[in-house]
Amino acid sequence: MQAFEKTHPLLVADWSEAQAREKLERMLLIRAFEEKAEELFALGRVHGTMHLSIGQEATAVGAASAMRRGDYLLNHHRGHGHCLAWFDSDVDAMMAEFMGKETGYCRGRGGSMHIANVEANNLGANGIVAGGLPIAVGVGLSIKMRRTEQVCLVVFGDGAANEGAFHESLNMASIWDLPVVYLCENNQYAMSMPVSKAFNIERISDRAAAYGIPGVTVDGNDLMAVYTAVREAAERARSGGGPTLIESLTYRWRGHSKSDKQAYRTREEVKAWQQRDPILRFAAALGVSEAELEQLRAAAQARIEQAVAFAEASPEPAVESIFEGVYA
Amino acid sequence: MQAFEKTHPLLVADWSEAQAREKLERMLLIRAFEEKAEELFALGRVHGTMHLSIGQEATAVGAASAMRRGDYLLNHHRGHGHCLAWFDSDVDAMMAEFMGKETGYCRGRGGSMHIANVEANNLGANGIVAGGLPIAVGVGLSIKMRRTEQVCLVVFGDGAANEGAFHESLNMASIWDLPVVYLCENNQYAMSMPVSKAFNIERISDRAAAYGIPGVTVDGNDLMAVYTAVREAAERARSGGGPTLIESLTYRWRGHSKSDKQAYRTREEVKAWQQRDPILRFAAALGVSEAELEQLRAAAQARIEQAVAFAEASPEPAVESIFEGVYA
Amino acid sequence: MPDAMLDRLPLAPPPGSREITYVEAVREALRQAMAADPRVFLIGEDIGVYGGAFGATAGLVQEFGEQRVIDTPISEAGIAGACIGAGLTGMRPVGEIQFMDFVTLSMEQLVLQAAKIRFMFGGKASVPMVLRMPGGSGTGAAAQHSESLENWFVHVPGLKVVMPSTPYDVKGLLFAAIYDGNPVIFIEHKLLYKTRGPVPEAPYYLPLGRSEVKRAGRDLTVVATSNMVPRALEAAQRLAGEGIEIEVIDPRTLSPLDDEPILASVKKTGRALVVHEAVKTGGFGGEVVSRIVESEAFDYLEAPVRRLAGLDIPIPYNRTLEAHAVPQVENIVTEARKLVRGEY
Amino acid sequence: MPDAMLDRLPLAPPPGSREITYVEAVREALRQAMAADPRVFLIGEDIGVYGGAFGATAGLVQEFGEQRVIDTPISEAGIAGACIGAGLTGMRPVGEIQFMDFVTLSMEQLVLQAAKIRFMFGGKASVPMVLRMPGGSGTGAAAQHSESLENWFVHVPGLKVVMPSTPYDVKGLLFAAIYDGNPVIFIEHKLLYKTRGPVPEAPYYLPLGRSEVKRAGRDLTVVATSNMVPRALEAAQRLAGEGIEIEVIDPRTLSPLDDEPILASVKKTGRALVVHEAVKTGGFGGEVVSRIVESEAFDYLEAPVRRLAGLDIPIPYNRTLEAHAVPQVENIVTEARKLVRGEY
Ligand SMILES: Cc1ncc(C[n+]2csc(CCOP(=O)(O)OP(=O)(O)O)c2C)c(N)n1
Ligand SMILES: Cc1ncc(C[n+]2csc(CCOP(=O)(O)OP(=O)(O)O)c2C)c(N)n1
Ligand SMILES: [Mg+2]
Ligand SMILES: [Mg+2]
After folding, report:
1. d(C-alpha A98, C-alpha A110), whole Å
2. Does A26 have pLDDT greater than 60?
3. Helix, strand or coil for residue A218?
4. Which of A164, A174, A200 sits opposite B167 (nearest CB)?
5. In angstroms, what CA-CA distances link A243 with A147, D37, D132?
6. Fewer Cβ atoms within 10 Å of its own Cβ: the N or the C terminal residue of chain A?
């Protein structure tokens, strides 16, 4: 694997080529899931809304790859990718939840914005911007008090960094040295609000200094860059070094949600970012050929079709069960 | 005035000696008001609670002195001093409000934590920590849209700087270049919480960088230092330069509110800070003798006694008027 | 006291009405108010070039510029505070909370500041502001984007709460809210945005605090709010086929509540049903029921007063469950029939 | 389902009770729960060396250390989130909001997260947590430190709301809340903290969702909450002198509300008065009134059902106005007398 080592010595250090390929396959699975989700919407086969992460796959897979089984994930509304990238994720249960079926992760009660896999310590996506940030403080405290070696990864967008919850959460995590990794997916926009207008600073990671914690900005379309930064932050957290704020620079290829004319950005800008496709870049780093990649893509799409079939064959939640889950 | 110029050339630049003495007298009036408030409480002649600013007089008078008539003030719970230092303040109406009388600034409805002098654009103290910070955004926007030359001074404590509202407010003021001066009175504690435990940074003013605005820390017990910093910030704001975060390092000599055993700090610490009495320091800078100072102190106390007499002679709000002021 | 601007506006209805949608009525009121008064401005998330999550402000930034149609960062406490500070200092802000659910982040500013400032300051200040927000379920947006929290605000003295059900009411009440001089929570409904109705083109206002009888009837008084009004009216039509005539009353302003028409109606019909989408327990229905049984209307009651409201659960994502979570036309028909036929 | 720990606790009352204050009962329950279970911890503002604004946690940091009695910065959303995250991951957090008013800053976390997580996740997670907060007026703390917002929480499915009126109830209900397995809003009253009553020394619990008849009577059913319970009992004594016997019922848990004893009582007395300190409009009283008139108890009513509650105003600072803003014993006596004598 000559080309291999040249491009990414790190891969050799951490992963076998097979493992590295799994990351690529995971990104392809996410891409395929999102494209199918979009299609199902267009066909009117799902209702509600959705937030596609096409273009951001490297951040999801890179981050999850840096965590350990048993760690916690607090995800956000643009969370399909993170959920699929997390430990023990089940694409059938994902798709079933997306389609509101009883076999879904949340028995059809949650839908796209609330997919969780509690058994795997994936504490769920969140429909509220920055909604997971205060919760991360509690997860961090709990880990500290239970004296386990866990770490909490909390994912949020650039827009979330302007909610008061961001401020309170980072400050509390800092003063108590909580094992939390704050991963800010800066995809350049909060709905229609460009980062350039919502912030008067160059890098969101510069805000780490306001809490006395490390802050770093990485190329979010480079899986290895995200992986490296998150791994370092997670190790620091695990060893009692406290929280880190990581800003992952990426871009969403699609509109904000189901209906978005995207009047706030230009086609050229979108095209330019599409040139930095995280999947193609990682495939190249791995020395995966076009043909191979096409096979892997087809395999991912086939897997998604299976998931759709599973979801469609699954029952709707029974109306009689409507009160279940309100109280323990 | 030899000694005078030596100690503070600035005084000469801005103020006549008479004007400078008025600042001293204003601080003495605040001190006398607070001491009387404490006494009235001890005697059970007022109910509710209060937050005394003894030891922090230089921040209040220094800041107000740097503003222009017509500017706005958003004050906080430890606000007696700021209210007395602001334009056109009426100590009779202050004391009457403190004692819940109809002649008080708020007709006895507000009390210590809500004293406002709306006619003078003193938009009131606030019982909610950081409660005035989001409001400052609106005042700033209003000034900008009305194209007046006003500035909004918003005062809050170190504890307020950890509320989410602080974050949202400073970010909005920054991205819109609002004419707001953020004055953080860092008196070392938020009730029992020491700044050293509530923050993981050296200076609260360092947080200004998270919003791309200027931040400065000054000796809050040095009236001229506070005056200089606030004047500079106000001028910048007035000329379209946007907001500034000023941290004023000071100390409250008394407990947090009416009942506080102060188990969280030592007598020595309090004593040490009392050595830096803002009033004695400014008096010395002005070359005011002990004897003169004693006279001025007596005059201030006499004025406060008058105010108490006024308040006591004032009527209680009529019970029939209880519904007044709920709606416009 | 309402703003002087109101005197310049006719009490509805001026001539020349045509059919527009509920969301167009919101936009028209905003546009006309902004054109007439430089103190009026809009602030909220994605209300500029995006036009608002539901299109309510589409085109307004092009017409009035970014200084008066202000896109904010995602800071709901900041948005509320911006309205308060601007209102306190002479402006007439109209804020938008993208989904009512997110107003949970503005509660301190709205309840402890906006609602209380005037009273705490002895009546010497006022906080004229409007905060618009879409509530309700039915779009598959699930538990965190489907709240109906109106009764929280009804429970806060100092706030007014408006909840219109027709395009005509939207326009007239929004003008009244902007010039009321108090903080007004203006609650729209996602499912009503695309509904159409006649609306006069010229500006006009409908005074706050006036309930309206949307349909007269002798057998049962149905008090319905927001999206439950059209459903109650549809139920009324069906019941008419069975010879049951229900009177449908829309409070329009939940606070202050004009209960006169409600009590008068109950004295006439002897029966009452309150219908709202918000969960039943602790909801606005309890207020209406209490106003009825506390009053002399109590002596006219021939049947228990009932509430038909949302189930006491968060709104589920699944389409079928979501529909079952809130009252549908059939449910209203059934409940009304029971009350009228004495089958309870 | 309640936590297994509860099985180890006796259902009240164990022997050996003595007189302690309401605030001491809070502290005793917290201390005993922490001593018995390492999952229980406290978090809030100034609850450590300061002992809490009202002294509820005095001495506990010395006993359990700063790791389990956690002083926070002034970040109410963070406090709520800390409880949610800890509860989600196996702990049994008990948070304190220094004054109920400040919970307005925690609403998003409590209402959109804590209350909904279990449901949104298909019942696969739970959020066991207690958030304690003192509500009410009477201390001269004015409009921003005197709120009674309990009905907001009653209106949120997924939350439970407890509002005890005696030291005995405080201790038993706090134990039940800690081990309930759901997010519980535990509302204390500033004026009750120093009141005394018999409390068993050993741990015990009182099941949530059980109303209690605090005094039996035949003429009128008075449903009172929190600080209005002792006032209603005092009114009952005075009325007894006039030969009027009122039955006083304390729901203790406002959500879920155990209305059985209330309905049974009304069937007996034929008259009902609901008394709470929160402002009347949109308040909890509406829920109780509705439960009564929607039920078969309606047929037993001999008089209108009435609410006696706080005036629809913010709490004024002035001592006299403050007292007039909420129901006092005299007001209860007067209202009760009117209803019994039919003078309305
Ligand atoms: C508190 C809150 N405010 C507003 C919204 C509506 N909303 C949903 S996603 C979104 C944009 C979020 O931007 P960002 O955090 O950058 O995440 P992205 O969508 O770009 O991935 C907005 C405004 C919300 N869900 N929650
Ligand atoms: C939102 C909110 N949380 C808590 C309180 C209770 N409280 C009043 S003052 C105070 C301490 C404030 O500290 P700081 O901001 O430093 O001001 P200082 O009292 O030191 O002047 C606290 C916790 C409050 N009034 N509002
Ligand atoms: Mg974004
Ligand atoms: Mg302080």
Report:
1. 8
2. yes
3. strand
4. A164
5. 16, 28, 28
6. N
ipTM above 0.85, yes or no: yes
Q: Which amino acid appears at position A37 of this protein?
A: A
Task: For strands D246-250 and D220-224, give the pairing.
Answer: parallel
For residue A201, give the chain B residue with the closest CA.
B212
At B13, the pLDDT band (50, 70, 90 cuts) reads low
Tell me if residue C56 falls in helix, strand or coil: coil
Q: Which helix (H) or strand (E) holds B265?
A: none
Asked if the bond preceding C256 is cis, omega within 30° of 0, the reply is yes
Cβ atoms of A230 and A247 closer than 8 Å: no
For a ligand 1 pocket test, name from A51, A129, A158, A185 the mutation site with the most ligand atoms within 8 angstroms of its C-beta. Answer: A129
In this structure, which amino acid lies at residue A210?
Answer: A
Q: Is the pLDDT of residue B10 over 80?
A: no
d(CA C278, CA B40): 49
Is residue C189 among the annotated active site residues? Answer: no
Verify whether ligand 1 is closer than 6 Å to residue A82 (CB atom): no
> How is residue A117 annotated by DSSP?
B
CB-CB contact of C244 with C274 (8 Å): no
- On the question of pLDDT at D269 being above 50, the answer is yes
Token couple for C163: 């909840």
B159: closest chain A residue by CA = A168
Task: Give dist(CA C286, CA C296) in Å, integer.
Answer: 17
* CA-A187 nearest atom, ligand 1: 20
Probe ligand 2: pick from B76, B129, B154, max atoms within 8 Å of CB? B129
- Work out the pLDDT band at D1, boundaries 50, 70, 90: low
Q: How many CB atoms lie within 10 A of CB A25?
A: 16
Q: What is the C-alpha separation between C341 and B317, in angstroms, rounded?
A: 54
Nearest CA in chain B to C184: B327
What whole-number distance in Å separates Cα of residue B173 and Cα of residue B210?
A: 12
E strand or H helix at A97: helix A91-98
CA B121 to chain centroid, in Å, comes to 14
| C-alpha D161 to ligand 4 mean position (Å) | 33
Measured in angstroms, how far is the CA atom of residue B163 from the centroid of ligand 1?
21
In sequence order, the β-bridge partners of residue C185 are C131, C161
In three-state secondary structure terms, B179 is coil
CA distances from D240 to B33, C264, C265, D216, D328 (A): 50, 38, 39, 11, 17
Q: What is the pTM of this model?
A: 0.98
Is residue C106 lining ligand 1, measured as CB closer than 6 Å? no
Ligand 2 center from residue D169 Cα (angstroms): 31
Distance in angstroms between the alpha carbons of the first and the last residue of chain B: 54
CA dist A192 → A195, A255, C47 (Å): 10, 9, 9
Tens of pLDDT, residues B251-261: 999 999 988 99
What are the backbone angles phi and psi of residue C188, rounded to the nearest 5°?
-100, 170
Closest CA to C329 of C219, C222, C170, C214: C222
pLDDT tens, residue by residue, A225-251: 999 999 999 999 999 999 999 999 999
Average pLDDT of chain C to the nearest whole number = 97
The helix or strand, by DSSP H or E, that contains position D186, with its residue range, turns out to be strand D183-189
The SS3 of residue C6 is helix
Cα angle for residues B279, B283, B285 (degrees, 5° grid): 120
Of C45, C141, C324, the CB nearest to A191: C45
How high is the pLDDT of residue A4? Answer: 43
Q: What are the DSSP calls for A21-59, one per residue? A: HHHHHHHHHHHHHHHHHHHHHHTT-S-S-----TT-HHH
SS3 C46: coil
B75: tokens are: 């004050």
Contacts of A199 in chain C (CB under 8 A): 73
Strand C253-255 and strand C160-162: the pairing is antiparallel
Residue A321: per-residue pLDDT: 98
